[in-house]
C-alpha cells in the first residue's frame, strides 16, 4: 500500500477512536458510572438498527421502482455533448414519454415493443420497414409521410431539440401519428435505445436524417455539430451493424451539398474534391462520409449518403433563409441579403422522391447479425440531390415578394466569412441513372406551395383577394401589427 494511503488509513482509525472517545466522554460527563456504559451501548445498537432499516428501505425501493432508479442513472450519465442534455423540449410524445425520461430506461417492455412492431409493419407486400431518425424534422417528416402513404412501415425518432421552434416539430409529430406513424422522443446518441429499437422489429432500412443543420450556426454552437453529426452518426451505424435480426438494415443518410466547400468546378459532381470544407457543419458532414466508409468496409453495412442542396418547401425549417425572409416580409422587418449568393434550391417533393429511390435501390447489407464482419462487399453509395439550376438569392426574395404581395425591406451586404459558400449547383446524373431521380419543381412553383402552407399554418390573412397573401401595396401600419400565430 502506498505510504499516503497507509497514513490516511491510520488517521482514519485514529479519528474513529477519537470520535468514539469524545462521545463516551460526553456521556460520562452527562450521566456518570454504569449508566454511562448502558447509554453508550444502546446508542450503538440504535445506530446499527437505523443503518439496517435504511438498507432495507433502499432494497424495497429498488425492487418496486427499478425504472426510477435507472432513470436517475441515465440522466446523470447523459453525455454532456448530447443534444438532449441541453436542448430538449418538455412536450409529451404520443407514446406517453417525455423529454429526457425517454432515454434507455423508459422505452422498453412488451407493450412498447408491440407498438414499435405495429408502426414498423408494412401494409403492402414487400414493403419496407424503415426507422427514420429526425422524423419530426423537415425532410424526415415528409419522407415518413411518403413511405407510409405507399404502405411501408415507419417508426420515427426525434429529440425535439430547440434549435428551432419545437412546436412545429410537435405539429409534424401529430400529423404523423394521425397517419399511424409513431415518433419516439429520443436521441440518436442513446445507443442502448437504438439497439432495443432495432431488436424490436425486423427493420429493413434506417433513414438517418437527424442532424444539427445550419451552416452559419456552427460558429455559435460547434459542439452540437460534433455531437449530432459525428457522434450521433456513429451511434446509428453501431446500432445498425449490431442489429439483432438476421439481416442488418441498409442505411441511407443525409450528407450535404456543403461538403463541396471551396470547390470551384461546376456543376458539383460526386467525383469532385470534397476535402476543403468551408464550415464546421460541412466538415462534420464530410467526416460522416468517411465514417460511413469505415462501417461499410468493416461490417458490410449497405450505406447510401445523399448530398441535399438547400431543400425548401411546406413544413420547412424556420432557420433557413426563404422561411425567415417570408416571416420578416410579413412582419415588415428588414432582411439581410448576401451579395451575389446563389443556390440550387431544391423542392422537398423532389428530394423525397430521391430519398425513396435511394431506399428502394439500397441493396442489402452483408454483415451477419450481432455485428460480425461482412460476408462480402456491400453497397457504398453517394448521390447529389439538387435541382440543377442555381438561382440568385435576390431572385428567391423577388418571388416571395410577389407571392406575399409585399416588398421586402432589403439590406444587401458582402457575404461574411462565416462558413457560407457563394454558390451551389448539382450534377445529378448518378442519381438519375441509379434510381431515376429527376427534379421537376421550379423555384416559383415550390415557393408558391410553401407560401400556401405558410399563410395557412401561421393564420396570415389574405387582405388583397388578388391571389397574393397581403394587400398589394397595403398599409404599412397594418402590416407591422400583423401577428403570426401557428395553427394548432
Ligand atoms: O445544401 C446544404 O447543404 C445546406 O443547405 C442549407 O444551407 P444554405 O444553402 O446556406 O441555406 P440557407 O441558410 O437557407 O441560405 C440560403 C441562401 O441565402 C443566403 N442568405 C442566408 C442568410 C441570410 O441572412 N442572408 C442570405 O443572403 C445564403 O448565403 C444562401 O445563399 C441548409 O440550411 C443547411 O442545413 C444545408 O443542408
From TrEMBL:
Residues 130-361 form the NAD-dependent epimerase/dehydratase domain. It comes from Urochloa decumbens. Residues 78-107 are annotated as: Disordered. InterPro entries: Epimerase_deHydtase (IPR001509), NAD(P)-bd_dom_sf (IPR036291). The chain crosses the membrane at residues 45-65. The keyword Transmembrane applies. It comes from the Eukaryota. Signal peptide: none annotated. Keywords: Isomerase, Membrane, NAD, Transmembrane, Transmembrane helix. It is an enzyme of class 5 (isomerase). It is a multi-pass membrane protein. Belongs to the NAD(P)-dependent epimerase/dehydratase family. SUPFAM superfamilies: NAD(P)-binding Rossmann-fold domains (SSF51735). This is UDP-glucuronate 4-epimerase. It catalyses: UDP-alpha-D-glucuronate = UDP-alpha-D-galacturonate.
Amino acid at each position: 500500500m502506498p505510504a499516503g494511503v497507509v497514513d490516511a488509513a491510520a488517521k482514519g482509525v485514529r479519528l474513529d477512536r477519537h470520535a468514539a472517545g469524545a462521545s463516551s466522554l460526553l456521556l460520562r460527563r452527562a450521566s456518570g458510572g454504569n449508566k454511562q456504559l448502558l447509554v453508550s451501548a444502546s446508542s450503538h445498537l440504535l445506530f446499527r438498527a437505523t443503518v439496517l432499516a435504511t438498507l432495507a428501505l433502499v432494497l424495497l425501493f429498488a425492487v418496486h421502482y427499478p425504472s426510477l432508479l435507472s432513470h436517475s442513472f441515465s440522466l446523470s450519465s447523459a453525455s454532456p455533448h448530447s443534444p438532449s442534455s441541453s436542448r430538449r423540449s418538455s412536450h409529451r410524445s404520443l407514446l406517453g414519454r417525455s423529454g429526457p425520461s425517454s432515454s434507455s430506461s423508459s422505452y422498453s417492455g412488451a407493450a412498447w415493443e408491440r407498438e414499435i412492431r405495429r408502426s414498423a409493419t408494412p401494409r403492402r407486400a414487400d414493403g419496407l420497414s424503415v426507422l427514420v431518425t429526425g422524423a419530426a424534422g423537415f425532410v424526415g417528416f415528409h419522407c415518413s409521410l411518403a413511405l407510409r402513404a405507399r404502405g411501408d412501415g415507419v417508426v420515427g425518432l426525434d429529440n425535439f431539440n430547440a434549435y428551432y421552434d419545437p412546436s412545429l416539430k410537435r405539429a409534424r409529430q401529430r400529423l404523423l401519428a394521425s397517419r399511424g406513424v409513431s415518433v419516439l422522443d429520443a436521441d440518436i446518441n442513446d445507443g442502448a435505445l437504438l439497439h432495443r429499437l432495432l431488436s424490436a422489429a425486423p427493420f429493413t432500412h434506417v433513414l438517418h436524417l437527424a442532424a444539427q443543420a445550419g451552416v452559419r450556426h456552427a460558429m455559435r454552437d460547434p459542439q452540437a455539430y460534433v455531437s449530432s453529426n459525428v457522434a450521433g452518426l456513429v451511434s446509428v451505424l453501431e446500432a445498425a451493424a449490431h442489429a439483432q435480426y438476421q439481416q442488418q438494415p441498409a442505411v441511407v443518410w443525409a450528407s450535404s451539398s456543403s461538403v463541396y466547400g471551396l470547390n470551384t468546378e461546376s456543376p458539383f459532381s460526386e467525383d469532385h474534391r470534397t476535402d476543403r470544407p468551408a464550415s464546421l457543419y460541412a466538415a462534420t458532414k464530410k467526416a460522416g462520409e468517411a465514417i460511413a466508409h469505415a462501417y461499410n468496409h468493416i461490417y458490410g453495412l449497405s450505406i447510401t449518403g445523399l448530398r441535399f442542396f438547400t431543400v425548401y418547401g411546406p413544413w420547412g425549417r424556420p432557420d433557413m433563409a426563404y422561411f425567415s425572409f417570408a416571416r420578416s416580409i410579413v412582419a415588415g422587418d428588414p432582411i439581410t441579403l448576401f451579395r451575389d449568393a446563389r443556390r440550387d434550391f431544391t423542392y422537398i417533393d423532389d428530394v423525397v422522391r430521391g430519398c425513396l429511390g435511394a431506399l428502394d435501390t439500397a441493396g442489402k447489407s452483408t454483415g451477419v447479425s450481432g455485428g460480425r464482419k461482412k460476408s462480402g462487399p456491400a453497397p457504398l453509395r453517394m448521390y447529389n440531390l439538387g435541382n440543377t439550376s442555381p438561382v440568385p438569392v435576390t431572385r428567391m426574395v423577388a418571388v416571395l415578394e410577389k407571392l406575399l404581395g409585399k416588398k421586402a425591406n432589403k439590406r444587401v451586404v458582402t457575404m461574411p466569412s462565416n462558413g457560407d459558400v457563394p454558390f451551389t449547383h448539382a450534377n445529378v446524373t448518378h442519381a438519375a441513372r441509379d434510381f431515376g431521380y429527376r427534379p421537376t419543381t421550379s423555384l416559383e412553383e415550390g415557393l408558391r406551395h410553401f407560401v400556401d402552407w405558410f399563410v395557412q399554418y401561421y393564420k396570415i390573412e389574405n387582405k388583397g383577394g388578388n391571389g397574393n397573401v397581403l394587400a398589394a401595396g397595403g398599409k404599412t401600419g397594418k402590416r407591422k401589427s400583423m401577428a403570426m400565430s401557428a395553427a394548432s
